[in-house]
Amino acid sequence: MLIRREAANAMDPAIGFSYSDDTETLIDDLAKPFLDLAEKLEATRLNDFDDHTRNAVLDANAYVWRFVANFLPRQLSKDVSPEMADLIVRISDFMQQAGIQLRKQNDEGLIKRLVELNLNMCNQILSLRKEMLGPDA
Fold it and tell me: Residue 85 pLDDT > 70, yes or no?
């Protein structure tokens, strides 16, 4: 599955997502930040970034997870089970705590885990496309 690079609808800069009834666009808009954050977290692991840059990526990661934990179950309530919604909230809490821990001490294994969770979330969101739009989506 691929994420479209260009949104069909104008994005609202205040929230970073398109206003659209188009389910495919909504799914892509939700998945892309997780892919972007996985790439940025991996870059902070592999390269020598200053603390300010690394902390900005960690803050963005925690923010996106918290936003989606609140947004996704309401927007896709019929497609997201209560168990999945609870799991997203717990991962969001983990991301926030991991960011705090990584500010204190760099942990390459923890950063790898954050990358893995972001890629997994991106994949899970993209898998909703087939469930919601059928196997040809």
Answer: yes
49 φ, ψ (degrees, to nearest 5): -90, 155
Q: For residues 53 and 71, which has the higher predicted lDDT (pLDDT)?
A: 53
Q: What percent of the chain has pLDDT over 70?
A: 74
Render the burial of 14-36: b for 16+ CB within 10 Å, e for the rest: eeebbeeeebebbbbbbbbbbbb
Cα 74 from Cα 98, distance rounded (Å)? 26
DSSP string, 10-64: -EETTTTEE--S-HHHHHHHHHHHHHHHHHHHHHHHHS---HHHHHHHHHHHHHH
Beta bridge partners of 121: none
Burial-class residue 99 by CB neighbours within 10 Å (0-12, 13-18, 19+).
buried
What's the token pair of residue 14?
């205040």
Angle, vertex CA 43, rays to CA 36 and CA 112, nearest 5: 85
